[in-house]
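Session log. Operator J.P. requested a structure for one protein chain; no other inputs attached. Running the standard single-chain path with token output.
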Amino acid sequence: MISLCMILFNEQLNKIEKILEQTREYVDEVVLILDKECSYDLEELCKKYIDRIYREEFIDFSQMKNKAIEYSSKDWILFLDPDEYLEPELLYSLKELTNQFQYDGYLIPRKNYEKDSSNNVYELAKYPDYQLRLFKRHCRYVGKVHETLIGGNNQKILDKHIIHNKLDEPIENIKRKDELYSRLEQEDLLTNLKLAYVSTYDTMCGMGIFTRHFLEVFPKRYQVMVFSEKDLVNVSRVPTLHNIPYIKSWCRIDNSFIGLFNEIMKYQSNIVHIHYDLQLFGADRRLIELVNNLKARNIKIIIEIQILLPQMIPFFKALNPDLIIVRDYPEQRGLLINSGLEHVEFIYHPIKIHRDISREEARKILGLPLNPFIILVPGFIRPTTGVGEIIEEFRKVLEKYSDSLLIFAGTSHPFDRDIIKLVRFELEKKGLGKKIIFTDRFHSEEELELLGSACDVFVIYRQSMNSITGAGLRAYSSCKPLISLEGIAVATFHKGCVKIKNKEQLSEEINNLIEDKEKYALLVRESRELREERNWVVQMIKYLKIYENLLRES
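Structure written below.
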């Protein structure tokens, strides 16, 4: 399903009719954003074709375009300017293109026919001038002018064209646009951003995965340098990030962060964003020294944390960065503000959007049977943290629904391998060997994506603060229901989640989801809604706003 989105200004009255006529049979809805200054003649003309017309005050182009996306209701967006139209071959292929689950968007070559302010005609200027105009609706624009789309990482280049015809545009309109573009370029403070992004974890776990996802969405139009931990973080080994600049600049056992400080100064950063792990470092005095040295050189400092222990508040008061970002637990922001720290922001842990792979297709790729109800338990496997209880509850499910499958998707500690082997041997003896699968290894992002699409429900069986960044987020990435033990780790999930008081309730809730199709469908819808609200693209725009505000203070 496709939404055609456009933003319109007064001078485009004579152009809009052609594109509306051309596309009306090939898109499922049209969303128009009119500048508040637009004449009612333009609005009345548009009403001949559509009813979904909105008026917005113009601030910048990204703001207007994102409003159009938010007002849309279909899975795919086709964004065009009024002086553009599609070649017939591209128009006819729109439905086929939007049925391809492996892509987030399509780069479309554009043929430009235009004049410059001296009335000189340029044909095929800048060809192929690729434009990302057909994309999934989770994507958003950034930048006040010459805006960039973020969130569409999996792209395909097409050979069919957009036609951009500006030959009949009056010279005074071109001059007026040039003046507007020049003003907006000067107002876009983020063009001056030189972000130093300090990461603490290896890419295979925790904050390293967070770092990877952050960089996947961070707009390429702005400057960022990753300052990574020596011998642990290696951004270059992640295929999708091989071109991200990074410097191995510090080590957790160093006596000071002077090496990190020197590298940041060489980079000439104006904002330093540090992801700081309290469980790993505690009250690290080296960080106070680093922050003081950077602030003395008028560099803005952001410290981002997920878990705040009350006894750590004096440390943060001594640290006194320009901004603290608290993630996931809003009550922790209140603790810091009540302690006297004024500059504290809250942000939810962003949710990665998985490709919309059908359950059947994912199971075929993974070699899983097509019919069973599949329960997925992702994460680190420890015999001491409830594997046995989960298996016992699953046996109760099998008594009622024999066509079910339980998958433990994760690795186990080397010390536990023999115990896991014994568990598997016992399962074989009881005839459950083919009903319970231990993958017993780390999975790539692609494998986790397929497992999420293939399963019917996710289960968190351990009560851990880290669960929120593991199994819980994986469930929402795949838009699947989540069953979890109650507790702070899932308190932030107010949709799409069934919270149980003890593991003995697990079989009952799984049976309920198998039997109650309406409840299952509701949880899936809620999971998708939460992903819409908290996905990486939405949260990245919040990060960029934070950077912009800090630059404005400089």
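Operator note: Residues 12 and 244 are 40 Å apart (CA to CA).
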